[in-house]
């Protein structure tokens, strides 16, 4: 896994994992919806489950731990990892406790909820998560500063335009 992460990059593996999980969740939904019409859809659902787990283990399972460790300097890193771990386990607990109720409520469309969330996570990661492969903490922090600075400049330009129109 470590060699794959170093070769392919954290962001690309994370995005590939999210997209693979999204496609697998859609395939699980289709398989469950069409199961009563086609008996072979059970195989589609089983393959989709296996692929979902594989894609999770390639991307969203391990990669956030790499990224969190690389986004923070030595001082706040332990606290950031603790918060990330708490969020991870809290979400796992919530999904574990609520899944049966959601499955009873949504029936075969239960994985459509996961597909929608995965799409949101993919879009967020695509637009907001930087590639950290081969970069120091200072370089990663500079990327965030540039984004913050460009957003501030855009806001000031909009304010100036609004003032000129008034």
From TrEMBL:
Domain Major facilitator superfamily (MFS) profile: 1-133
TM segment ranges: 12-34, 40-58, 79-103, 109-127
GO CC term, one of those recorded: brush border
GO biological process: D-glucose import; dehydroascorbic acid transport
GO molecular function: D-glucose transmembrane transporter activity
Coiled coil keyword on record: no
Compartments reported by the entry: Membrane
Keyword Membrane listed: yes
SUPFAM superfamilies noted in UniProt: MFS general substrate transporter
Main location: membrane
Alphabetically ordered keywords of this record: Membrane, Transmembrane, Transmembrane helix
Pfam families in the record: Sugar_tr
Membrane topology classification: Multi-pass membrane protein
Domain of life assignment: Eukaryota
Name of protein: GTR2 protein
Source organism per UniProt: Formicarius rufipectus
């Amino acid at each position: 896994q470590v060699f794959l992460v170093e070769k392919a990059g954290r962001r690309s593996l994370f995005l590939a994992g999210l997209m693979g999980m999204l496609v697998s969740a859609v395939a699980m939904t289709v398989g469950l919806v069409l199961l009563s019409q086609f008996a072979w859809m059970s195989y589609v659902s089983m393959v989709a489950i296996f692929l979902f787990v594989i894609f999770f283990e390639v991307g969203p399972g391990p990669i956030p731990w790499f990224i969190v460790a690389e986004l923070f300097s030595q001082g706040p890193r332990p606290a950031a990892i603790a918060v990330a771990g708490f969020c991870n386990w809290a979400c796992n607990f919530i999904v574990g406790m609520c899944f049966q109720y959601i499955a009873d409520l949504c029936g075969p469309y239960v994985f459509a909820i996961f597909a929608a969330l995965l799409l949101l996570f993919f879009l967020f990661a695509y637009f907001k998560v930087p590639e950290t492969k081969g970069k120091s903490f200072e370089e990663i922090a500079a990327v965030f500063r540039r984004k913050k600075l460009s957003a501030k400049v855009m806001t000031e330009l909009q304010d100036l335009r609004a003032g000129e129109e008034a």
